[in-house]
Batch of 4 targets.
Target 1
Amino acid sequence: MYFPYLRGRQFELIALRELAEQNLISNHIFPIIEPVKLSSTLTKTLKIYQENNRNAAIIYNPCVGGLSNEILNNHSENKICKNLAEITKESTILKAFHLEKSIKAIAEELSNIILIATEREDSVYYNDIYEAKTEPKYTLMPDESDFRRNIRNHNRVLLADNFIKRTRNVDYYNNPDEFYTSDHLYYKTDDYVGFADYSVVGNDYTESGFAPYAVAIHIVYFDGKNNMRVHHFISDTNDDYTDTTGKFYEALKKLIEWNKEKQLDTCAIKEFQKLYDEQTYPGLGTVKKLSIMHHIELVSRFLGQREEN
């Protein structure tokens, strides 16, 4: 099972919502959403997953964004919190929590949740919290020795930040094609029940964007041995931040030419082709949305085909 871990910004949420609405993902996909603010887009996305009987989880003690260090409270008078409380009553929508010493005080139940362990010093609290009597539904954790020693449950999920984040988009220019991961091939062999990552966004979080000097489109694909790689399509005229539309077409043309050989046919790739044919610029948020959608749909297909075989 694949657990894409995304922050609850507008275009990440729309990506997840459209994947469910268009029936592009299977039950092999279990998105984890870390909300950065309470919004109607957040609740609408979760409701779509609920209505389509698809799995998803929302982090109740987020660590980034406007809700950092806040606890989403089911008893809050906030309308969106009330909606979340109703949605998480459904079996397909789970609550998730970052592992911390005080988790017993903030989680109403400890078994039917997703636990996220990313801090080595907090992993030592796992056995004090669970006392070997029960365990979380799933535990996302890095494949590191301290985590493996401290967290010994049956439902561990391998969490990795596979996307190599560059300081500037133009920095991808000299490294257009990179290894992304082979976790999807070996997670079971390594004694995990699933794998997780931060898609082509990466774990680094920034509050706001800015006009880039270069436009980048990040597209994952499988090589001949089914390892996943990522190709970066970068604009050429990158001396200043003017003419973002022209830069987008430069990057998009490279993607379209490259795909004549690769023949990727996800919904997102078809949308990129349509944008190229119609010479339409959708905005950088939509570009990111399509890259995420492509990644998740591609992994969903791979896992579905692997199960059939």
Target 2
Amino acid sequence: MKTQSDPDRLDQVASVSILAGLLSMTLGLCGAAVIGLYFGRNQEAVLVALFSIWLLPASLVVVYEGIMIAAGRLRAHAAIRIVADACGLGVTVAGLLAGWGVFALVAGRLAMQVMMLAACMGVVRWFPRPRLTRPLLGELLEFSCHIVSNRLIIFVRSYSGTLAVGSFLGLAEAGYYRAAERIVAAFSEMIGEPVRMLGWVVLRRVANLSGPDRGISKEIGTAATGFIVCAMAVSVPVYVGLALMSGSLVHIVLGDAWAPAAILVTLLSVKQILLVPGYLTEPLLSLSGTIRKMPPAIVTNSALSLLFILALAPFGMLAAAIGQCAAAVLSFIINVRLQSRYGAADWAGVLRRCVHPLFSVAAMVVVVALIGDIADASATSGLAVNALQVLMGSSVYVVTLATLQRLSGNSTPIFAFAHRPT
């Protein structure tokens, strides 16, 4: 997604991806052989072998997804994902009904990946030719090291809270904490992945218009500023609504036995609001050629986050969640610094343009709380009340935001990032 649309470079990127997939698959198959022959666990060995085979098409699919995202073909990409997921689900269900057991899950995953690869090839109409040069290989390895290290650090950080809570407080509290994390993570994935993909598309388009050799430019910074405002305007009401309705959601999804997880969902939703701007840091620093600045910042933030968890987890899972919110504040500050210094993002402008969404969220909170109070006074509860809260809250937010934007005629529109620079 960072490179220019040069067929030779794309062939080399795909060649490296295929080699990485072959290497990963080979290592997995060797591990499966050891599990089967040395430990005598034949079923586990077959599972590992099947998952290892899945790695090869998966590595090539990533290249095609990157090409489609870079070209702005998000609608086709989404359609392919939906069809592939439906195919995988169909194979999984059919396998379970046929008595395949856990192997049905692997078969569904393989079917999904093969379908996605075939569909991407059909839409992109490009097949890579084996080609690799030493200069580009070095460039890819250097860039990939930064990206992989970022993801590994984030992965460790995401599971450290659950492990710390489980170590200090026991399995029950760890279960509540993990359940709350997964509920918030479901909404985070729903918001985060589109934001990340759109961020790449918007910033790459602006970078191409600005010229490939200019590095970071004022146009890219302006687009990044507008995109952050738009991402906050879309995501904040979702997370605030999740925090307000955490009790009802936990009751509906998990049952009354998981009620202690509701307050954790509220706190982790607040934490996630502070992490939303971070979705743009990777594409912004990548396009500006300063991606190497990101791993040290993430290491610092992760270390501080872990220290907060270790210090507060002995006082209960609620204290651990508060520690996560404090760590998110530090992450927010680090992302603001990186985006301002190396990505030319105007964070003063971001805060100024977020005033209208904040007032709109406040109006939404009032409406949702009033509906809840009326429902409690009339002893009414259930999905109907929750659906009314979602419908009225979202409607009030959109209407209030549109009204404020219209009344302040000289203010910059929320979706100003969508305009191409001149």
Target 3
Amino acid sequence: MTQSAPDRPAIAFAMQPTRTQHVLTSELIQRLDVIGRVLDVAPMERFDDGRARKLLSETEILITSWGSPHIDAAVLAQAPHLKLVAHAAGTVKGLIEDSLFARGIAVSHAAQANALPVAEFTLAAIIFAGKQVFRFRDVYVADRHRGRTQPMQSEAIGNYRRTVGIIGASRIGRRVIELLAPFDYKILLYDPMVDETEAQHLRVEKTELDVLMAHADIVSLHAPSLPATRHMIDARRLSLMKDGATFINTARGALVDEAALLAALKTGRIDAIIDVTDPEIPEASSAFYDLPNVFLTPHIAGAVGLERTRLGEMAVDEVSRFIEGRPLLYEIRRDDLARMA
């Protein structure tokens, strides 16, 4: 039986509209207004104005996404009825703090939905790297004939029986492994949290990081960005890579010593496909923009355009479960924050 309007939980939104197009479609908002009571379809972009204070005073469920203001104890003091924060995006680091858990507020996120396009991007990057697609493109466009590209096809390139190294069995790393299963790759995995039994289940060869760096034709980074993992890919480990190998980073720029990476790339010995950097936007003079063996993209591996609707759908599904008294599928607990990217 549908709850009467006063009994339906009050729902509000906090995000930046210019960054979250397609996240909450009109259909999803209509669905929310059936299972709950949408207070205002316009999201809050700040919590310190009169409109926000009024909304927060009634809100029981807050759906957040990119650009949401930080939720701290002062904000919670204005939201006495808040019971759930459903984040329609990936990481909640920088958005919430311990005060939410101290008050017993449930927190959910849509990182699993954001993992799918990153894994798809990575699969495409691996296939293109193995086939040397960008090199063929550059030579063909420069020459306007096939004098050089024809002989290149006889080189030891392609994706048959190549070795791919996956660093980190994160949700993205695991999805990449799944996507690689139909292909003729040997997959090495470095993740200290994965034991031999789980590695066998994943159908990968568990190995140490140095061994992976030395033996993989393509290295793909999927570890969380934590103090312990900062610059885990340094000059020494980059020096272990095979000549002609490709390094892919769709995780976080801080995981890599970028000065060391650029030095290695300038030799032409390895290639790189880079979607994330540290800082997030490299300086205009950065060699990332100019090196012919670098394929640089502006942090687009995650959900963009229509892919963002997956985030909204996952958040709305979690809201529905919460209202119906069912367990959340993607709940974040206090202890999870220390291990999250």
Target 4
Amino acid sequence: MIFGMWDGALFHIGPIPVDHLIVTEWAIIALIGVIAFLATRDMQMVPRGLQNAFEMAVTWSYDFFTSLMEKEHVAKRWAPLLTCFFLFILISNYSGLIPGAGHISGFQPPTSNWNVTMTLALITFFSVHIAGISEHGGGYFGHFISPSPLMLPLNLIEQVTQPLSLTVRLFGNIFGEEMVIAFMLFMVPFFIPMALMGLSVLLGAIQAVVFTILSASYIAAATSDAI
């Protein structure tokens, strides 16, 4: 009954409502999946075309994240997750550049909604602690009382602020950018919005890189020998 009262739902799968935000996320995930499938279905020793582009993206991602982490085996283990973060956030950010994106029925750029950015941040949060426990075992929890047990409250607060900052930073930048572009499209229909959308291409990539770099740095800190 409660689900049925959700006015924002486009349709329902049983009692579960599906809104425009979820539809867009599914579309982006499907797009990434299709590209990955097409790029790897007939792999050649000398890559070309889509395989070459896909391998370049994966290689760049791995090399980049390896440089952020002091341990290569940690980078290998977590690079797939970080690469997925980067691709999903990048495409989500760019989906907001589609004209009228915020007003098309069944469509909304996922990263302009705090529920999505919070979910990504929580994935990072749990990944950090899983990585730390995998690397240090039970000794990982010792860093919460380092250098003194009196630091426990501050260290716990730090763990809470990390996902919170990731959530707010990504959501705030993308949502604010959308609002500015929508306002300018209303006020000045062509020239200024086109310039802003050009800037948004750069900012969308920067936000994807920043979120992923911060996630990688948190994992690197949790797996460091300094713990």
